[in-house]
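A further point concerns the way the authors explain their paired sequence and structure data. The central task, working out the structure tokens from the amino acid sequence alone, is never made concrete. I therefore recommend that a typical entry be quoted early in the introduction. An entry of this sort, consisting of the sequence and the corresponding backbone structure tokens, reads as follows:
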Amino acid sequence: MRLRTVILLLSLVFSTDTLAKLYSAPVLTEAEGMLATAPDKSLKMTQNFLDQRRLSLNPKRPHTTNETDRTVRTPLNTTYAYLIIAKANSLLSNPTEAWKALEQAKEMSDANKLTMTKMDILYTEALLHYQLNRNHTEALRLLKELAQQFPEKVSRTPSQSELAFEAALLKADILSKKEPEEEILAQFDAARQELGTDPNLQLKVRLQIMLGNYFLSQQQYEKALSELLSAFWIASENEFVADIATTNISLAELYKQRGALHKALLHANQAAEFYEHFKLMRGLSRAQTLLANIYELQRRYNFALVHYFNALDIERDLGRLSQQAEIKVAIANTYLELLHYPLAEQYVSDAIAAAIAADEPSKLAQAYILQGELSMELQKVDQAIKVLNQAVNIVEQNNDRALLSRALKKLSFCYEVKGDFYQALLIQRRYDQLAERDQDRKQLQEAKSFKQRERVIERQLQFDDLERRQEESEHTLLEQKKINYFLFGSLCVLLLLLILRHRSANFRREQLNELRKDYYTQPHSGLKNLRMLNDRLPNSIEKSNAHFEQWYLGEMIHEPLSDRLRFAMFEVPFLKTIHMQYGYQQGVKLEKSLGDFFKKKIVEPSRMYHFSDNMFVLIEPQAYSNQEPSLLADKVQALVDEFLRTLGDNNINSNIRIGMAEYPFVPRAYTTINDQDLLDILLMATSAARQLSRETNKSEWVHLSAIESAPAASFVNTDIRKACLECISSGLVKVRTSSHLSINWQSVHGSEKIFP
């Protein structure tokens, strides 16, 4: 149960080396995700899947991941299970079992015509040729065949896209062993292209780790550091814990080679903690070995031996002879540093035996070189020459330049100690040639490294310049913000003042409207009065008063040079007696009703003014110069009659007295008669109409108008009434009335007699 919990946790936390197939069962997806970190557990899970379920050959059974029946497995599931077993056995160095599982997968796929598995089988076969047989040529041929079977990128399924990436990455790994650097980097770029514009981050991390490890193997440390750090931070941000551990191992190796042992130790410890926590023995063995290497470089040999022995115990449990041989060589070298020759000799012998059993020429050559060094320390020169020659022969066959250089140097020294200087010279020349080539290669790498550092420094300088500019921009922006805040605050204050001023202006305007209403409106009727015409204002404000009156209160004559108006002043006698007949309250109501009635009936451009208690002035535009005055009088009489009908009181006398005139009063002199003079003329006409009405006991009207040829000089007398009476007597002013009775103009004027 505990093992199952760990397996489930691992499958949920990370997915590594291979693909989660669209049609594989969930348990197979989990097993496939554990191949890189725990192939033994992956193999066990997959084998249990095959053993615990019976094969269903029902052709109608759907191939889905939603398993409703956990007792059966489909041919498709079975095929993928065999492929996982093949990969797991390959990682566990079980070639026979791996190839057997691959053949079973092929047979199952062919028998059930599972065309969708063909590309996966082809990829797995290429992988086995590379991992087990070291047959790079065949692996590359199979990958080329696989690449030809992929559809166009736009029509690929997600599973096919990931398989194309895996194939490209495997090809890059194969090429990295022997091919030129340009071809290798081109293949890594091809793998990167397979990820697309929106890559799967976990696949991107795997690509960066592999590319970083390649640069590390070529001692291109700057490039390796760039790729590995990028992979580390992406994995950390997305919690790809297995990839974090893998990156920690690579970073530890990089820092170890560069001499930054403290940082190397930090990354190696982090990786070891992860592998130990999840009991991933293969990764833990590698981390322990790396820790031991670092401690050995720090000359902390006791710590190094502890970790070497821990790693050796793990490898014995795993049964991996190749890793055992490598660790035993390292232990022997540590004992040699400690001058503990018996134990060093023991572990060298064990390492040679393990390397021979594992068929690992590289490990065997390392053991022979170390045995040669040990023999020299023990003064066994002939034995040292023998084993070093064996090491040289092995590394020449495997073309391992580093080991060959090391073996030649030791062998030359042995011949020199023996006294065979000619042979020592020959070996030394070979070593020098190899060292020269290595030096050329090192210089080339240093040149590349220098260019890389130069680019890094340039980018750093550009970055520093950008930072400086950013600081300046931020400072400028801060100052601008302060200015903006000040302007905004000032604007707010100004806006507040404007709002307060606007509210105050509205309040004053309302007060002014109320005052205007109270002052320029007759309090009883509600009609406009002519108060402004009767005011005598100081000269200092006469102009402003005239402007105010013209535009806001409505003078009788707005535009003296162009207005053509008809005026009717009429007296309503019943308003004098209404209060005595009906009381004050009813009288006020009646006056108010009359005013409202006039407001309703008189529409613009006509105007109505309340001149005095019972007198009103009606002003209308004069459309035609020959219009009969009786029409205006009839209109006024009709208004009064209609109002009285609305009251429904027949006891009220409807007689009215109307005085009428036109503006301009003098046809050829517009400005001779102003509005106040015109009021005097209207009062004279209304007084005459009152005189006639008293005699006839009915409504009467009187109309005054100057003749066409009347001179303006006749009306320049200071007393307009007197001037008007003189013009009436001389015939310059025509009088028309609604009655045939004569008018006593002397009583109308109320002054000395002007008639004989």
The longest strand covers residues 565-571. The chain has a mean pLDDT of 85. The beta strands are 54-55, 72-73, 528-529, 565-571, 607-612, 615-621, 657-663, 700-706, 733-737.
